[in-house]
Amino acid sequence: MMKKKLAMAVAGIMVIGLLTGCGGKTTETQEPVTEQEASAGEENDVQEPGGGVDSSSTGEGLIGVSMPTQSLQRWNQDGDNLNKFLTEMGYEVDLQYADNEVPTQVSQIENMITKNAKVLIIAPVDGGALSAVLSEAKEAGITVIAHDRFITGTQDVDCVGTFDNAKVGALQGQYIVDALDLENAEGPFNLEIVAGSLDDDNAAYFLGGAMEILQPYIDSGKLVVRSGQTTREQCATEAWQTDVAQARMDNILTAYYTTERLDAVLCSNDSTSLGAQSALKSAGYGTEDLPFPVLTGQDCDIANVKAIIAGEQSMSVFKDTRALAEVIAQMADTFVKGGEPEYNDTETYNNGAKVVPAYALDPIVVTKDNYKEVLIDSGYYTEDELK
Ligand code: GAL
Known about the structure:
Elements: H1 2-18, E1 62-67, H2 73-88, E2 92-97, H3 102-114, E3 119-122, H4 131-139, E4 143-147, E5 159-163, H5 165-179, E6 189-194, H6 201-220, E7 223-224, H7 232-235, H8 242-256, E8 264-267, H9 270-282, E9 294-295, H10 302-309, E10 316-318, H11 321-336, E11 358-361, E12 364-366, H12 371-376
Parallel strand pairs: 1-2, 1-3, 3-4, 4-5, 5-11, 6-7, 6-8, 8-9
Antiparallel strand pairs: 10-12
Helix pairs in contact: 2-11, 5-6, 8-9
The structure holds beta-D-galactopyranose (GAL).
């Protein structure tokens, strides 16, 4: 615990120490976002963002921010936070959302290149589909920062700001081990897996991290996957869509769980967990005789935190989008001013063309027991938002 607090403190100090920038404007028609500053709050393990940016800094020029979609809550927060921090640092911001369409994202990025963006901050719809447009960016001397998701198969990405995504999966897997007491209980327990989108490299890290912990129990027979679906391809959820996850879980419950009870569902994030929850409710789960299985998630979306409070979802993994936006805004500002950002991982993230230097933040398990401390005390949500 102390190590984590120290790590967070160091991260926070580093972000404050390296941030520079001044009041500026955005080319977006959007109004600056509502304040998401961390509240004073009691000291806790939450990644306290660096407390905003230095409004006397002298950042100038255009920064392109390319987000994948607005249909999943967290990307709206990522976009808003980046817009806020970069604007406060003095930059113009061109914030675009690609509606989960690769051609749309490519043309939005091309437009940012045409507008002489100094830096491109990109959370890709498909991390392997940007090589051509990023070679144009590189020719134009534009720095490219991957935001949370990896950009693969190209040398033309300078760095990535993300979370320790293998750890996200490990936290989900370990939660299932602990909740079912797999070390001591007789078993066997029935498990199903709902993984992320095949075009998102993060999904491989989440599933890999979880299966590193769960596979030994599957091998020993203490965990049984009655559908037999355990690979990334078999468990994938296209574009992380809730309805796709729900339809697949409907089919699995109908085919394999009419006489057997499902004990745990490993869901790689909250939007897929919502789909699994709907399918489970339709199959009669959530009653005294048939309680919900252990259900994981990630992102602490509002709908899912409400489900955690209601006892329908067991846990989510918190990735503080404010902290990520501060790290990435600081990276962009450092590049613009001719410097090289701080990284805390220059070995792990091989994107198939190079090892991409990274700053990876720590994720945090959120349950009914600590959501107030992690999410409300830190100012991420208000009590009312979770009612
Ligand atoms: C991943 C991201 C997760 C999850 C998912 C769907 O790349 O790291 O936090 O939200 O996309 O948006």
